[in-house]
Amino acid sequence: SGISAEEEELIRKIKDLMVAEEPYLDASLSMYQLARQLGLEVRDLSLLINHKLNKHFFDFVNEYRIKKAMELFGDPENQEMTVLEVLYEVGFNSKSSFNTVFKKYTGQTPTQYRKGGVAEAGS
Question: Which residues are CB-contacts of 10 (< 8 A; sequence separation ≥ 6)?
Fold first, then answer.
């Protein structure tokens, strides 16, 4: 199941939108809303994410949320922000799910990550 040129283009379009528009900052972002923003059918978006990127929708979205959280934690200007403020800012609405997902992607809890600054994964 290779990726056609058309699918490549759509995947690039999805990733560009995620970076430029940051729709993931909305905690209630759904597959339907994202498909609408992209002018795609939900089914097509679902197939692209599930079968071409091999991810579930929420995992796909959460990756962007975690990257954004890591940016916020790494920015000295945001030192005053609490973990709670950061998790709401990046589109999570529960501390436990944020901690779980953050640890899954970074190997550290948000608090550990913040204390250690940017640690090498696995060190």
Answer: 38, 40, 44, 48
